[in-house]
Every structure is written in structure tokens, then in C-alpha cells.
Amino acid sequence: MKQILLGNEAIVQGALEADVNFVSTYPGTPSSEIGNIFSKIAKDNGVYFEFSTNEKVALEAAIGASFSGLKSLVAMKNFGLNVCSDSLLPLCYTGTKAPMVIIVGDDPSCWSSAQSEENSRAFAYLAHIPILEPADSQEAKDFTKLAFEISERFNLPVIVRTTTRVAHQRMPVAINQQPCLAGRQAKLNTKHPKGEFIKNPHQFVTLPPRVLEMKQELLEKIEKLRELVEKSPANEASGSPTPTKLGIITSGVSYLHVMESLEELNLKLPVLKLGFFYPLPERKIKNFIRNPKEVLIVEELEGYLEKEITTLSKDMNPKLKIFGKNLLSPIGELTSTKVSFAISKILGKKYQLPKIEQVLPKRFPNPCLGCPHLVTFSVLKKLKSKDVIFGGDIGCYMMAGVPQYDVQDYLFSMGSSIGIGHGISKITKQKVVALIGDSTFFHAGIPALINTVFNKSNPLIIVLDNRTTAMTGHQTNPGIGKTGMGEETTELKPEEIAKACGVKNIKVIDPININEYENTIKEFLQKSDVSLIVARRICALLAKRQQK
Amino acid sequence: MNKIFNIIIAGVGGQGLVTLTQILAEAALIEGYDVKTSELHGLSQRGGSVETHIRFGKKAYTPLIDYGKADFILGLEIQEGLRMISFANKRTIFVINDNYFSYFNGLKKEEVYKRTKSLLKKRLYLIPASDVCKKELTNEVVSGIYLLGYCAFKKLIPLKSESILEAIRKVVPEKYLELNIKAFNLAKENG
Lengths: 548, 191
Fold this sequence. Notes:
Chain A contains 19 helices and 19 strands.
């Protein structure tokens, strides 16, 4: 049976077919739909699901589940991997008990990502963690299952790394069970799955000198895994069987661009598609580069494959000419046209890159009709001066930076509006207004808030509490009083947390009371210690949806 | 159909592009084609320009349509439809909703219409979908579906209207289904 699935839906389907029973996530484009779907279907499928406070906690929750014998899946965007890396590295040392798969969504071209065009594949080198790269929705499903199998066999966590064009691609996918979105046959046990933690400090405690033994065990596991990888059909050579001058090595969605390009140019060239980024099937690659005089490596962002293959070619085919990042930029996503240009260049053929016409001025993103952030932006706009610094953070309110408002003087990572604001307010006479959303505050704002009190600075922090994690599709968070499975839970209030952290100037305001809002901001900007406003009003889209 | 057919849908975040993309993908599958689509979520959806790509035929590899390769462009708003001109070639058909959303630093309405007509000329079908849907169905939200109906009944896209209707039944939630089917069929009556 074939069903059209989004890449992220296919991952959910793969995890269900692999009998996952614990799923945790922090939403982030392009991986958010994974959590959104589990939030709806977990209960009926005997799966425990949670939106965790941040990606580090999400990973740690899954580690706890794995150590207690449950099969787990963790999903996040690329930057989430940075957040959880502190626990990811030791996890590779201890290994998993029950299998664990981590889905990481990269975003070449930064379609929905501030901060950087991160290439998460680099974590393979840092953590010695196996990484698979699907090209399409079918592989997103198949590789998720394969990742669970590898994790089970080698007791290692495994990353399935997608990119925007994989995660948000739709295609017909062959599925084994009832489609997940229509609801899988409910299992007999629809209550939370239960596990048991069996004490084993030898495996779970990473103290030296044992930790160095663990590293040895990890490296040995990877060596054993190499044998499986060499034989895996996930790494597949295709195309012209007769030796040609030029061969192509590629991975992920770039493979699809390569195949499209070869069709456009009407060429038959050998293509090696690598499903595994780490560890690489070195023998297969060596075999592939034995004959051609030239090879083109087609990969998005930094040329990690190119570096590896350059090293491998030194013994195998020292005269091999390797093309890659000299023809395909490390910046921005690839397209089949870009690949056609590179191939044509190598073959000495002419290829005209298309002209891009800008016939209209750019339409920047804009807050939705009735968005409460609009009030904040217009109030802040009135305060604009060189002595008031506006700190931005990650969420819909980073639209404060679009030209029509232009009230964002720096923007980095989750929680950094407060952290950086502290540094500025500590050593300048300038005033800092740090914006932060409710979910972002819980995610990474609290340690930075504590730092402003502890180290005595005086930024004004405005928590834009729109009662949801809006940007990524209205997920619940610790301030809402509902879990990811819809159960009632304690509703945490940013103002109470701030009070407990020692903040003395605190006010909760409905931003539509614009005079009160403006006056409070002016008053708090005069304070010699840190102050915090909670601007609380529900996201306009969510309010509309709840009325329906 | 041997060749791949490339459709781009363009609009502003919130106009229901993803649903239209799903419908076209399902319709292509119903007709036995291979199909791939691409869309964007998150920041890119918030009130800014949004585009989705749909490719179907014997074998669709990449989900992305390259510049100059679109066969058909469906614009849910005039400026967003025109903006896709880099994806078009001399044969590309533009079906555009006669609907203008102003924006910061954007061009005036008259200038946009003038530019659109002079650049697209005979390739342009400017359809008052929003006005018709508002008037006849008191709901502008389904203007995208109305446009799909228009394209299907005028045979501007190589998918049968029955396949698209079947896809609509599959994709659209029960409570909005009747409205959507009405909007789709309305295009036939008005065509």
C-alpha cells in the first residue's frame, strides 16, 4: 500500500513500524511535525510522548527511558543538537540499553532558521555517533527503521539527519501497517508503557578511569558497525556499468538533484549514493573511485564527504581529480541546476545558469492579524534611540527585526536575549530591553535570568507570553498546564519563577492595555536592578483556532 | 504524459497552500503518476511570501522545480504570482487570483497590475476567485480550491477534475468538505 507522506510523517510511520514506545522532543523547524503527530496519536498507540522543556532534557528523558528498557525516539532541529550535546557525548560512551534514534533536521539556506546554517553531520566526528542521511520520504521511513535496528544491535544511539527538503517533501511511501495519520490499530496496552531500571553503574556511570574504557568500547563498536555499513543497501552504486571518465558520489536530497540533472543533461554516469555518513563504507567508496579519472562529490553545506574521499583516494587512485566545493558552494541548498552546472563544467560543456528576475520588492514575514507582538513592536519603536538596545530571541517575535519595526539590535540563540543583554548592561550605561517568548524563557532563559540577579545587572526583560510555542505550530509548553499528551499538569508562571529567582520589579500586563504597557516599560527602564514584564495575551491564530 | 509536469503555488502564509499541495499530490497519485512536492514551514509561513512545488509524471526525482522549469504557476495573490516569474518560461501558464495584499515597501496596486499584465501578457489568466467565493459562498478561504476547479475544467493542468475531487475528499477535513466541493464545482458553472 502506498500513501503520500511528508518526510516527517514518514519518520513517525517508521518509528511506529519499529514499535517505538517513548518519544520526546522540543519543536523546531524542520522537525516539528514529528512531535505534533505523536502528540495526537501517542495514546492510541501505546506510546509515551512529551514536549520537553528543551532538547537537552528531551534527550535525557529518552536516555532514562532507554536505560529502563524502552525503545525511544528524540526529535529536534539542528540547533537542538548543540543544546543536548553535553549529554549526547557521554551517551555514546555508555551506549544505549534499549534502542534510541535521534532525528535531527538541518535547514540549508536557513528557510526557517536564524542563527547559523549548521551542518549537523560534524557531530559524527565529535561524538562518534552513527549518522544516516535519507533523500526522500520513503527513505525517511526506511532509515528510521534501519537506525532502530542498528541501535538495537550495537547499543549505540543513531542519528537520522534530514534537511528541510527531505522533512518537508511529500511522495508516495510504501507502508507496512495502517497509515499512522488515520490511526494505527490501537494496541491492547494503551496506558503508558512501563520499563524497569536495572542498576548497572559499570555501564551508566562515566567516571574516570572507566570513562576511557568506555571510549575504547565505543570505538570498537564503530569498527564492528563498519562491516554492516559496507554491506548495507543504504549505500548504493548505480548508473553506467562501463567505466566512464567521471563518477559522482552524493548523499541525502542531493542524490535526487543529481538524478534529475543527469536526466536533463541526458548523461549516464556511475553514481554512488551514501545513506551512511558515519561510519562511511570505505571499501565501497574505494571500489567506486578505482576506475574513474574524475569524481564529483555532490553534498550540501561543508564538504565533509569530499575531505574523507580525498583521503581515501590517496592509496586507491592518487591521480583522481576530485571536484566538489570548488564548483558547488558550501552556502545555501543545492538544486539540480547547480549540479548540472558543475557536471557541465567538468565535462567542458556549456551550461547557462538561469537568470533570476526581481520584479517586485521583497515581502518580509509579518505578524499575523491581531498578533499581540504587534503592540510590543509599536511600543518599542517609540523608544528607539542609541541608548536603548533591543535584544531579540528565537520565536515569532524575531519579526521585531523586519524593516517595518526595526527594533532588534542582536539575535543569537534560545535564551540569549537575556544572557547577552546582561553583558551589555553590565559594562555600558545603555539600557537593554530583552524580548523572550514563554517557551524560550523556559527552554534557556531561566539560567540567564538568574545570572542577571546573581551578577547584578539591570536589563528589562519582557516575556512575551502568548500561551503557546507559536512559531513551530502551537505546541504546549511548561506555562500552559497541559502536557504533550493532553494531560493536566502544573502551570508554571514566568512571573513566579522570576520572583523566586530574586527579581524585585515584576509586572504582568495585557499588552492591549497600551498605556499601562508603555508606562511600565518607561518606569522599569529607570531601575538599577533587573526588571521583568510578562506581556500575556494568547496568540491570535491560536485564539481563532480555539473558537472553531 | 512522458514529461514531468511542474506546478508552483505561490501566495502569502495562511492562504492554505499546503492543503492545495496535498490535494494535487493525491490527485497525481490517483492517476498513477509518481509525485514529489516541497513546502516550507515555520518562520517562512508567517505573513511572508510562500511557495510550494509539485512535480508529477513517470518519475519525479527532486522535489524542487528549478528556475525556468515551471509549466504552471498558481498565484493566490497577484504579487506572489508575479514574483514566480523566474520559475517560468515562454510556455508557462499563470493562473492568478485577482487579489492584492499590500505590504511594507511594496508597490502600489495600479503599478502591480500594470507590471503583471505587461510581463505575463497572454500567459496570464487573472481570475476573480476571492470575489466570487466571497459573493457566492461568503467565504474567501476556498478561493484556492475555486482556482483549482477553474484549472481542471479548463484543462490547464493534466489532471482530471474527478481525480482532484477525489483528492479533495481525502485531504479536506469532514466539516469543511461540502464548502470545498462547492467552491471547486462553482468554477465549472462560472467557466
